[in-house]
What we know:
The chain starts with a helix and ends in an 8-residue tail after the last helix. By secondary structure, the protein is mostly helical. Helices cover 77% and strands 0% of the residues. It has two domains: 4-223, no CATH class; 241-322.
Amino acid sequence: MPDRALTSRVTNPETAWLVSVVPVALTIVALLLLIFILRGNLSQVLIIQDTTRAARRRATLPPGSVPDVALFFTPPTTPIGRFLSVMAAGVVGVLLVLSLLQPMMVALIAAAPLTALLAWALLGIFERRYVTALEHDLTAAVGRLSVLLRSGNGLRQAVEKVLADEPPSPLTGEWSFLIARQGVPLQSTEGIATAAQVVSALAAQTPSRQHATFLDHLSVAAEQPLDVLVLRVTSAYDALQASERRRQEAVTELAQMRYSGMAVGLAGLAMALYLAATQWDRVREAYTGSPLGMIVGVVVVVSLLMPIVGGILLSQADDVDY
Length: 322
């Protein structure tokens, strides 16, 4: 009588997916544990990354405008906890997608450059969000600063009162630098940092061009008589309001173009996802069966995303003219 253990099927077709899921699941669990265990070291890496970007920004300044070492400023553009959470989710997503398209070993090799690209993109996104949040609060803060200066307060007292009334934000973080660094000993010269020097140093290091423009104006008037300072800040406030109006007008005019582009892009993306869901074997064979198919696949993905990206870019209206 034949042995049933040798003649029966080892793996049933309906459970065959477990064979490929196990290595993927173990790899994902190992990566999540690694991120959890090394979260302290990764946080230090992100802090070093922010410091390196600030140093790179200073390196592009003209020699005469590089601030003193005591006035170096590192904008906290990367929220560490959120960055690590998004990166962990991104790594899991990349591995899952690649494991469906390629063997596990190839997926692991390809995941490394894709993860690095994701980290680079996230750093840029978080810096842009930092700048957007800063510029969103700038006009109102400059308006309150103008009112306080017209009431007879000095620059330091006016900035302190603005900070006391504002919740923590990128703008309050940078304006706190103006207060904290005034009077610190300078290393390049024998003296202490004046208000004009601190304001000028922050203008050279902030990632927001709009904020830097305002600070450049403020540094010129920081040590002038109060009436001149009031006039400068009031003029800057009026210019910021005009800039905000122009930006809103530009956003309104481009809204239809933006929505049309995003609608077309999302419609094409929805159709592509439908085809992938209903004809997965054919889609996989078409775009992964040969090098030409992989190139065409990249072209198709870029073509589907371009209207969406274009719509997002149209919503970014940058206006720093005073």
